[in-house]
Amino acid sequence: MKRRSLQEPTALILCAVADQPRHGYAITQEVKEISDGRVTLRTGTLYSALQRLLEDGQIEVHSEETVSGRARRTYTLTPEGRATLTAEAERLRATAVEAERRLAAHRPGSKGAVA
Fold it and tell me: Which Pfam families does UniProt cross-reference here (predicted)?
């Protein structure tokens, strides 16, 4: 069964928790870093996405603690989430390879280029 491609914020959230568990604020900072500042997750967007990913079994709560009177959850990938992120990375890689192939075929001076 082919998986549907992920929306960029969802893929970035999964990527942010792929190497280690992170709490909400750390996820937003990691997403900003991974995207080189292009994507800044708003709080509502982040927690809606986290809830959806929890319900879909892509992530799970790694730990819960109380910090300064507030509950803090850290999230981590599930095996299903790891498979989803792996498939997304492969899809993006294949698209990039094909784009590069087609661009190279039509560079000025290359065989097959349109004059």
Answer: PadR
